[in-house]
Amino acid sequence: MYYIYIQESITQRELAEEMSIKEPSVVRLLQKLEYDGLIYRSATNSDKRVKQLELSDKGVKVCLDLMPIAEKFKNDTIAGISKDDLETFKHVLSIMVENTK
């Protein structure tokens, strides 16, 4: 939901790329979010097979409610770790993610 929120509108394929997961996995997640009334999926004008994603009003509210909790969790987990160490961690993690593709 975060990626949809920050981009306001994104395709299923773009979301899968952002999350570094396969598109079929994203589809199952999106079906649940749509069923719960948190997102809308609609076909694009250029290609009816491509689904554009947008948050519903309920989805925006849930996302805004969760962001401070996620930010606090992030800050708590990186407390006491130097900026250089975090950069090294991010770099190594990105290599690991690339290795799984």
UniProtKB/TrEMBL annotation:
Occurrences of domain HTH marR-type (ranges): 1-98
Keywords: DNA-binding, Transcription, Transcription regulation
InterPro entries: HTH_MarR-typ, Tscrpt_reg_MarR-type_CS, WH-like_DNA-bd_sf, WH_DNA-bd_sf
Listed Gene3D superfamilies: Winged helix-like DNA-binding domain superfamily/Winged helix DNA-binding domain
Gene Ontology MF terms in the entry: DNA binding; DNA-binding transcription factor activity
PANTHER family linked: TRANSCRIPTIONAL REGULATOR, MARR, TRANSCRIPTIONAL REPRESSOR OF EMRAB OPERON
Record protein name field: HTH marR-type domain-containing protein
Organism: Paenibacillus albidus
Native organism taxonomy: Bacteria, Bacillati, Bacillota, Bacilli, Bacillales
